Structure formats: C-alpha cells, structure tokens
Amino acid sequence: MFKRLKSALGKSSKSLENQPEERLYRKVLEASRNPELYTRFEVADTLDGRFDMLCLHVALVMRRLKAASDTRSPNFSQNLFDILFADMDLTLREMGVGDLGVAKRVRKMSEAYMGRLTAYSLYLDKGDKQGLAEALARNLGRQEQGVRDCDRQCADFVMAVAAKLETAEIEALLSAEIDLAPIFAPEVGK
Description:
The protein is an all-alpha fold.
C-alpha cells in the first residue's frame, strides 16, 4: 500500500510507513474489513459496501479527533482524510478506471464521505439512535425507506464504538499506538 500511496502524497514509501496517520489509517482499514460486521449488519461485501464501512470507521475516528482539544488534531484529521482518498484514487486506477473517471469518482466519494461524517456526527452528538439507524440504513444497507433490525443493531454498535473512542487517549490515536480491534469489535451475542 505504501508504494501505491507515495505518488499521490508525494512522499517515499519509507516516510509513509513511519507516518502515524498512515499507520492509523491501516488500522482503521483493517477494522473495517471485519467479516462479522458485514454479516451481522447485512452490508454487501462489494466495493460500495466496503467503501461505506470504511467511511463509517474513519468518520468515527475523525469525530473523536475533532472533539479533542489537542492542536495537532486538525492537521492529523486532514492527513487521514487525504490518505483515505489517495487510497481510493489508487484503488480505482488499479481497477482500470481512466484518469478523468477517477477524478470524478473520487470527488463524488469525498462528498459522500463528508455527508456521512456530518450525519453520523449529528445523530451521535444528539444521542438520536433512530436517526442514526436511518442514516446507516441508507448508507450501509442501501435502503431507500425503512429501518431493519440489523440497522438498529448497527446503530447500537456505532454508539458503543463512539463511546469507547471518547475514552481513548488522544495521544494513542495521534501516535497510532492504539489497538482498534477491541474498540471496533461487535459485542458478542448482540
């Protein structure tokens, strides 16, 4: 992945590997690929489903960074965003999408991400489980109308992850010395 990202970010793969934002992105990406999440919350294991799940995970981490009073958080968040979309750009290119098509798709993907970040943050900040379940049904479940039981369960999961992230030390996030597996793990038996 480092070689793929280096051209987009203008850095050597060695410097990317040592960048905390890149290390955290890789951890978030890995957490977003947990097969249990796709099965339990009925998310299609497709390019769109994977993108939506990754957006959810990155949005939760960025929400935590935004809430921090650390002056490094805004730049860290921006770098995390840039790494996410450099990865999306390069993934599309590897899939054979042409240069003009990549730019348009990445722009649409970044707009979709920002919409999801805004919606998820709004509902989490208000403690609105129903609103969150509806947003998750639209984005992860690709449901035009209605909220399924799995969407409500996903809202519970997202609220629990947000609560766990709120207690996470900001320094652990900024240094990428955090184990995200227990934070993003679905509760057993739910």
